[in-house]
Design brief:
- InterPro entries: DUF4239 (IPR025333).
- Pfam families: Bestrophin-like.
- Keywords: Membrane, Transmembrane, Transmembrane helix.
- This protein is an all-alpha fold.
- It has one domain.
Length: 265
């Protein structure tokens, strides 16, 4: 599915939704002769079909809503994780300014290098659906430098304990950010959704409508909405890929607002 996420939305959305609408209309055209032969009492047919469509619509609508909400929650959680990691890096960078110059400066340089690596390399891997490995070595370097520092005074010990706690929070947020690369709906859910969409198209085609234009209009409007919901869900299914994705903006702001500004000072 990488082609889906790598192709611009102005190409994928018309193709996806337009193809979905076209398929639904073709189903209507194909089944209309069958329905005309089967229907002997239009009133009875419509009454029975209304119960079936109503029941199916409730279950299919609930399924689509639950899946869409679940995917959006994963997307929102991923964005929160990136913001949390960026915030912990800011706190860690600022915290090292209280250390002696010879101890704090190398750590700040390591944090700045880590941020640039995340922006330039980690997110490039994440956009390809790959687990980022480029910044792992830099995390080890920062941890080694932190552990090499030996506080002397009680004030330095308090600062050091806070720095270690901030580093642990940063590592946890980083792990959550990386784990989000593998987030996706199970294939079984997509199978159920596609089967439901096919059943919906068939049920709409079963409606007894004398006017072909009106029948195609009904099928087209319903399939247009369902296609849009499915497209948006699929586009957000991988938080770092597609047109609706989490980018490195939080880390870029840390570089501009903290690293560069404090460095200038």
């Amino acid at each position: 599915m990488n082609w889906f996420y790598e192709t611009p939305i102005w190409i994928t959305m018309p193709l996806f939704v337009g193809g979905f609408v076209l398929a639904s209309c073709l189903v209507v055209v194909a089944l209309r002769p069958v329905v005309r032969k089967m229907v002997t009492s239009p009133a009875e047919w419509d009454r029975a079909l209304a119960h079936v469509i109503g029941t199916f619509g409730v279950f299919f609508g609930i399924l689509l809503a639950l899946v869409a909400v679940s995917v959006y929650e994963n997307f929102a959680d991923t964005r929160t994780n990136t913001l949390e990691e960026a915030a912990q890096l800011t706190a860690l960078y600022r915290g090292t300014t209280a250390l002696p110059q010879q101890d704090g400066e190398p750590i700040r340089v390591g944090i700045a290098e880590y941020l640039h690596t995340v922006v330039d390399e980690d997110f490039a891997s994440q956009r390809r659906g790959l687990l980022p490995e480029e910044s792992a070595v830099l995390v080890d370097d920062i941890e080694r430098m932190l552990h090499a520092y030996e506080p002397v005074t009680p004030a330095e010990q308090a600062e050091y304990i806070q720095l270690l706690a901030t580093f642990d929070d940063f590592v946890e947020a980083r792990r959550d950010r990386i784990d989000a690369v593998t987030l996706e709906l199970p294939p079984l859910f997509w199978l159920v959704i596609w089967v439901g969409a096919a059943v919906n198209a068939v049920l709409i085609a079963f409606i007894y409508v004398k006017s072909l234009r009106l029948h195609l209009l009904i099928a087209g409007l319903l399939s247009l909405f369902i296609g849009l919901v499915m497209f948006a869900t699929a586009d957000m299914d991988h938080p770092y890929q597609g047109s609706i994705s989490v980018g490195p903006g939080a880390y870029e702001r840390v570089i501009q607002q903290t690293i560069v500004r404090l460095g200038d000072e």
